[in-house]
Amino acid sequence: MLKTLLIIIVVLVVLYLLAIMPRMIGRPSAEKLLKQNLYAHRGLHDNNTEAPENSMAAFKKAVDAGYGIELDVQLTRDGVPVVFHDFTLARVARYEEGHVPEDAVRNEDGSLGVAGKVIDYTYEELQQFHLLGSDEKIPKFEDFLKLVDGKIPLIIELKIELFDVSVCAVVDKILRSYTGVFCIESFNPLGLYWFKRHHKDIFRGQLSEEFFREPEKLWHTPLYYALAFLIFNFLTRPDFVAYNHKYQRNLSRKLCRGLYKNTAAAWTIKSQEELDKNRNFFDIFIFEGFIPS
Predict the structure, then answer these.
(1) pLDDT over threshold 80, residue 200
(2) I need a surface site. Which of 79, 152, 264, 269 has the fewest CB within 10 A?
(3) Among residues 45, 85, 198, 199, which one is catalytic?
(4) What confidence tier does 279 reach under pLDDT thresholds 50, 70, 90?
(5) Is 99 a catalytic residue?
(6) Is 45 one of the catalytic residues?
(7) Per the structure, how many domains does the chain have?
């Protein structure tokens, strides 16, 4: 009985280690991404200024300062890749003054945000709106790449809701002619799997955190436990793992970096104290709200 139990335990451990294993053969070099290991989260932004998150102004500030940039890409209704984080517009997008419709969304801070999702609008329709209190508009991904022009490295997060991975092919087509240093990442393993099948040379990363510690009840399910412990690595074989730094002790994350020598990125570092505390546990640091020293 004891021998059988030990065999079962050994088999389960082996299966677990195989499941979380990142790409081991043919892994692209992370050297160029690590030359600048500080990445400005959604640009070097301040949402109370003329350089709000994921704006061209915030990106220019990051480029001028020499930091890498982490940004978010998703598709409009007419298939144009734009740089915007949330699937919904209300938190960040604002109507023109004097043109606020009745269906405007009231945010927790009392502000009136744009109703609907990014994918509900064409690119031209999105240009009617401002980013927070600034004059900045939602940028087109191609315009962002022209601004950066290979001056600094990029971490490109693909926003993929459920099973719609159409953003992958669109972004991949654009990136094939871009000569700067970049990698892609996503919370959705299906996006990484798409690149594994269609453009395996791209350095790809799995975004994750311990979802079950967060308040949203949707995240307290077997699917999100599997995502938290990187079980879908068997499908995606990522080249790096980007993890919420608050949960840096996560066993799967530690094994990926320690046992498999997988590149580790920390998100989102919000103070010099957090940066210093995590230097020994990660290789790349995505930061916001301060200037690292």
Answers:
(1) yes
(2) 79
(3) 85
(4) very high
(5) no
(6) no
(7) 1
